[in-house]
Every structure is written in structure tokens, then in C-alpha cells.
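Homework help board

Subject: predicted structure for assignment chain

Our instructor gave us this sequence and asked us to write out the predicted structure in C-alpha cell form, then describe one feature. I got the C-alpha cells but I'm not sure how to describe them. Can anyone check?
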Amino acid sequence: MVRRWFLRRGLNKGVSPVRYWQNLFLHYAFDQCMAREYPQIPFERYADDALCHCRSEAQAEALLKALKHRMEEVRLELHPQKTKVVYCKDDDRRGDYPDTSFDFLGYTFRPRQSKNRWGKFFINFSPAISNKAAKAMRQRSRGWNWPERSDKQLEDLARMFNPSIQGWINYYRRYYPSALYPTLKCLERRLVMWATRKHKRLRHHRRRAAQWLARIAQKQPTLFAHWQLLYAAAGR
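My C-alpha cell output:
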């Protein structure tokens, strides 16, 4: 059985003062070095964050050692906390190792329960929205001050916030979309708070406000970008 490993590498941002030149420099310091010295190891890099796909622990450890030396040559260093060897644990790779997850581009990659085409459950090493990304979405939506916009109509809120919400959905629903539902439910709770401020008959009645919004969602499911995904998940 061949084990597959990821070498998770991050650059210590305190070393290079200008991110633009850092990215350009890494093209020569890292990308070309990998293509020249390790053509058998696929990798992805975005800015100063990269993944290297190794086929064994020994290969990953050897690459880590080589990259530390390479970064020293160009007066950079690997981030001591973010750089690690990760074991991609799943139904075919059942070993026990300290690191079995990592974050990359807003996703957390880790062992997850999945279902195959025949309805059988299995453990798959796969991505889903990271806790950090979900928290950032909630914080940004909190800054929209939903309850304070009682002067707006429902359609106004949709026009104001749909571009951001649709962008999040487009990006994060691609893999394991159910992990996105708690954040979408948070958006809906803020919309409920707006409704209780907007309409006197709904004041202090969150459940009634939620039911009112659900009825509108049934008639206009595309009004808000998250409605189709959220209410489909709820079986409504």
C-alpha cells in the first residue's frame, strides 16, 4: 500500500518586507527549484503558501530538509509553525500520525466521512471550508449591521449583499458543501433580526419572522443567493 503525504509549507512573512517581490522571488527560489530538482513531486503554490505531494514519509522528510537548505541559500526561512508533514489518512491509509489535516486557500483538508455512488459510507481525505474562513465570513456579515437597516426593503438587502454571499457560495460549496450550512444559517438569523426590526408585527417574534422569510423563500427562492442551498438542505 502506497501512503500519500503532503508537505505543508508556509513562509515566515516577517523575513521578506514586500509581498509582491516575495511572490516574484519565490518563483525562482521555490518553483523553479522544485521543477528542476524534484520533477517527480507535484506542487501548488499561491503567494507564499504551498503544498508538495509526496508519496512517502521518507520522501516528505527529505524534501523538507532540502527546502530548509534552499531557503537558507536565498536568505529566507520556512515558517516554523505552518510548515509540517501531513499524513493523508483515509480508508486506504489507516496509520496513526500526529498531523492529519492542514488549511490551504480557505479550505481544511482532513479525513471526512463520504458516500460513494452506491450509498456506502467511507473515510475520504477531502477539503471543506475552514473554521478560519467561516469565521471571517460571519465577521464580515456582522459588519453589514442587518438590524440597523430597517429603512431598507428585503429586495434592497438582496442587492446589497448578494454579490458577497454568491461569491462565498461559488467558492466554498465546490467541496463538501454541507460544511457551509452553519455559516449560511448565521446569515439567515441576521436576516431574521432585520425582519423583527423592520415589521412591528414581527417584533420580539423571531420564530414568526423566520416563518415569514421561509414563505418568501418558497415564492422567490433566488432572491437571496443562499436561499436555494439553505432551504434545499432543510428539505423545504
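Reply (TA_rk): Your C-alpha cells look well-formed. For the description, you could write something like this. The CA atoms of residues 151 and 198 lie 7 Å apart. That's the kind of observation they're looking for.
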